[in-house]
TrEMBL record:
It comes from the Bacteria. PANTHER family: BETA-CAROTENE DIOXYGENASE (PTHR10543), OS06G0162550 PROTEIN (PTHR10543:SF142). InterPro entries: Carotenoid_Oase. This is 9-cis-epoxycarotenoid dioxygenase. Its cofactor is Fe(2+). The keyword Transcription does not apply. Keywords: Dioxygenase, Iron, Metal-binding, Oxidoreductase. Belongs to the carotenoid oxygenase family. The keyword Nucleotide-binding does not apply. One of its GO terms (molecular function) is dioxygenase activity.
Length: 469
């Protein structure tokens, strides 16, 4: 059990179900309401921040927390739950020290002397944000850091990867894997020019292509999108500005004057090959998918008018939904240079996901986590959007029941794009009960076909993943 500092009060990111747990579990006998489908085979994974040693309760931000993975392994109608800290070098050093070593993102300007030993990176690898599964390898991701290899199903940490020394830039939390070629496309953002670097990793795990992407200033580029032949970069107005932070403002700020544009690059192109297309000013944190229709590129993502991520920006008026995304589409004509864009679905949502067998190609269905209308950073349901008909179906978790990212898991021998299950962790704050919901994607409105009652609390987290058996 980790040597934990006793800090759970005085900061909303440390209280209630946002607060950390310190125990690691391995549980096979859980109460199940309904029946676990026998054609659900694989590992449902959710990662998020679970801080142990904290420099300052007042300035702690949820992005600072040590990575913890919660997983459920499904096999033949049974389920096995596990949770494990990601044993990064930084996590292990703080455990050995018994106190904080790295201060946190909102404490960068604090005059307290750093405790980082010589030779270790100034930024702690938290491995707390998202997953990617590529070349039969599961990686836990943290944008300023190298990807961390995680073993399945036991969740053991196997160290970081620099792809035989060829990875020379940071690694986004949202790389894209083309299921047809097996290639993985990734990028990294930086405070220093060229601000963005892009790479392609082959189906066998060899980094085969890297190029800088020159943009005017550093920005928060959290996600991108990939089609059959192109990669799309979002130069949107969440800017990074240390001088602004030193003047008392946010390091990350919403800057409408920066504008919004989408860069289109051939998969193996270089910086000179990027074509930039101006679009209406807005914010995209997470994309859903992108594909090609002849010479037209289609991008779908959750888009908001502004943002409050890490306190950046401000709501336009008093409507909190100004900072909440809605499913949106851009159609970029590579021949005419024209862009058609507009709202697809009025439900406020984020964490947009698809059946990943359709990544980089046209998909029919998009799933998203529904924002609570007034409570920040909280999701209270899931929505399914149909690109062919424009129809939407929703399922809400119920009063005082909140969740996070829901993923699509294809049914064994599935017969259609939506023939599978939507899986997510939720927490009932009234009953103080954490659960895993399994919903038939063909009948989302009907709610769970099975609910696993987790015998301890599963804190709210970041991204989820599915790895088929």
């Amino acid at each position: 059990m980790p040597n934990a500092a006793a800090v759970t009060a005085g900061n909303p990111f440390l209280e209630g179900n946002f607060g950390p747990i310190m125990e690691e579990h391995d549980i096979q006998d859980m109460e199940v309401r309904g029946s676990i489908p026998k054609d659900l085979e694989g590992n449902f994974l959710r990662i998020g921040p679970n801080p142990v040693h904290i420099f300052s309760v007042e300035t702690y931000h949820t992005f600072d927390g040590d990575g913890m993975i919660h997983s459920i392994e499904f096999s033949a109608g049974t389920a096995r739950y596990r949770n494990r800290f990601v044993q990064t070098e930084g996590f292990k050093l703080e455990q050995e020290t018994g106190d904080w070593v790295w201060k946190g993102m909102l404490s960068m300007l604090d005059p307290t002397p750093a405790r980082v030993p010589e030779g270790m990176p100034g930024t702690k690898n938290l491995a707390n944000t998202a997953f990617v599964f590529h070349n039969k390898t599961l990686y836990a991701l943290h944008e300023p850091s190298q990807p961390t290899v995680i073993g399945l199903p036991n969740l053991d940490t196997r160290g970081t990867s620099d792809f035989d020394g060829k990875l020379t830039h940071s690694f986004t939390a949202h790389p894209k894997v083309d299921p047809h070629t097996g290639e993985m496309m990734t990028f990294g953002s930086s405070f220093e020019a060229p601000y963005v670097n892009y790479s392609v990793i082959s189906a066998t795990g060899e980094l085969v292509h890297t190029t800088p992407i020159n943009i005017p200033k550093p920005i928060f580029m959290h996600d991108f999108a990939v089609t059959e032949n192109h990669s799309l970069f979002l130069d949107f107005p969440i800017t990074l500005d240390i001088e602004r932070a030193m003047a008392g403002g946010p390091a990350l700020g919403f800057d409408a004057e920066h504008g919004s544009r989408i860069g289109v690059l051939p998969r193996f192109g270089n910086d000179a090959d990027v074509r930039w297309f101006e679009v209406e000013v807005g914010v995209v944190i997470h994309t859903a998918n992108a594909w090609e229709e002849g010479r037209v590129i289609v991008l779908q993502a959750a888009r908001s008018k502004t943002t409050n991520i890490i306190g950046a920006g401000e709501a336009l008026g008093d409507d909190p939904t100004e900072t909440q995304g809605q499913l949106y589409q851009w159609r970029i004509d590579l021949d005419s240079g024209e862009v058609e864009e507009g709202l697809l679905c009025d439900v406020h949502c984020d964490f947009t996901r698809i059946n990943e067998k359709y990544s980089c190609r046209k998909n029919r269905y998009v799933y998203g986590a529904i924002f609570h209308p007034t409570r920040p950073l909280t999701f209270n349901g899931v929505v399914k959007y149909d690109n062919d008909t424009g129809a939407k179906v929703t399922y809400e978790y119920g009063a005082n029941r909140f969740g996070g990212e829901a993923v699509f898991a294809p049914r064994v021998n599935s017969q259609s794009e939506d023939d599978g299950y939507i899986i997510s962790f939720i927490h009932d704050e009234t009953a103080e009960q954490s659960e895993c919901l399994i919903i038939d994607a063909l009948d989302l409105a009907a709610g769970p076909v099975a609910t696993l009652m987790i015998p301890h609390r599963v804190p709210y987290g970041f991204h989820a993943g599915w790895v088929a058996a």
